[in-house]
Specification:
The chain is of the alpha+beta class. It contains six helices and eight strands, in the order ααααβββββββαβα. A five-stranded mixed beta barrel has the order 1-3-4-8-5.
Length: about 290
């Protein structure tokens, strides 16, 4: 019997006509594309981690707020003086207070562009003079909201709470001054109704406008005395107490998930693209062996 041939095996059919050689060369373009994808993914991951940190900060702030609201209320001016003497606004914010003093309507101001239930208006902020033993000072009180079609100029503002010079009792919550956010000061109203308006409750800016250096920080956001007060029919011009902002962590967790998804897309998408490029035949390098006849 004859020995088997040592030559190459012949393959007929389509495979003989098209035997692509894989395009496995590492080109500068592919390297650059991969590097860009890795850098982009790294940036996306860092942004996601930053959003997670913001989420944790908001969650911690919400827990701190609830804990302080649950503490016993500050019942006297002396206790308030002692509390703010050695603490920052952030350390005292959300403590509940019950204070007695006299309104200083001559130094009342407005905070413009404040909406309530979709209606434009302003916040009314009035100093309250409080005293304890030989110490006295004024604390700004956000008395409430009034409608203003232009979000700047309300109608008449009721001051009946101070009728006859009687002492006023205020129930509220300490809030941190919005330092650096109050200016510019814009006058609002005409004649006796004219008042300075600010962009936020910036205690320093409001004190400077009033020529006073003894305003306490933080300020007080007045609350309804009970749940019925918010729905009771009010005298025209009486500020409506403003609800406390809802606690929450914001959209940071959702943003973090989005950034991590972008990082995954960058890496997986780039890998899929490079793999597809590798499987494409190298131009001019296709091996073709014609079949019979």
């Amino acid at each position: 019997s004859s020995a088997p041939s040592a030559g190459p095996t012949r393959v007929d059919g389509p495979r003989a006509r098209f035997s692509p050689i894989m395009n496995t060369r590492i080109t500068p373009g592919r390297i650059a594309f991969a590097v860009i994808a890795v850098v982009a993914a790294t940036v996306f991951v860092r942004l996601g981690l930053w959003q997670l940190d913001r989420h944790a900060e908001k969650a911690e702030a919400a827990d701190r707020r609830e804990a302080r609201l649950a503490e016993p209320a500050i019942e006297s001016s002396a206790e308030l003086f002692e509390l703010v003497a050695g603490s920052s606004d952030e350390e005292t914010e959300w403590r509940r207070v019950r204070l007695t003093g006299r309104w200083e309507f001559e130094n009342e101001v407005l905070v413009r562009n404040r909406a309530l239930d979709g209606r434009p208006g302003v916040h009314v902020v009035t100093p309250l003079r409080i005293a304890a033993a030989a110490e006295s000072s004024s604390v700004l009180v956000l008395r409430g909201w009034l409608p203003a079609p232009d979000a700047l100029t309300p109608g008449a503002i009721a001051t009946a709470e101070a009728s006859g010079g009687a002492a006023a009792e205020v129930t509220g919550v300490l809030r941190a001054s919005r330092d650096g956010l109050g200016e510019p000061m814009i006058p609002a109203g005409e004649g006796a109704a004219r008042r300075p308006s600010f962009a936020a409750v910036d205690v320093g800016a409001i004190a400077a406008a009033a020529g006073s250096a003894d305003y306490l920080t933080p300020f007080v956001q007045r609350l309804p005395d009970d749940a019925r007060a918010a729905t009771t029919t009010r005298t025209r011009g009486t500020p409506v107490p403003v609800p406390l902002p809802e606690p929450g962590t914001g959209p940071h967790m959702a943003y973090a998930i989005q950034w991590f998804a972008f990082a995954l897309i960058a890496l997986v998408g780039t890998g899929a693209f490079l793999l597809q490029e590798q499987r494409r035949p190298r131009p001019g390098a296709t091996s073709a062996r014609p079949g019979p006849g």
